[in-house]
User: Fold this.
Amino acid sequence: MNYRNLEEFWAFYVSQHSKPLTRRWHFMGTLSGILCFLFAAISGWWALVLAAPLLAYGMAWYSHFFVEGNPPATFGYPFWSLLCDFRMFGLMLTGSMDREIKRLGKRPVLQVF
Assistant:
């Protein structure tokens, strides 16, 4: 499916993260990645920059394969998926993700492939 803008993709992205445990794995992965970057910048231990995407994507992909049961949206839309992951992280951090899910309403679960 082709999405005309990020907001259209966002609705799809949220539908692919329907289970709270999937969103929690994503949150922990994104947080781990951010902390790796911050620690690398503070400590000068730049090898940690390589660990950041491994942790972030590893946790997110685990959640898709073993919790949600769908392919990661990253496979079809890598840049938009990254932006939406940060958006979901921010909404979860502020406690607004449940409200966003309700705002979007029930959407059909579409597959990337």
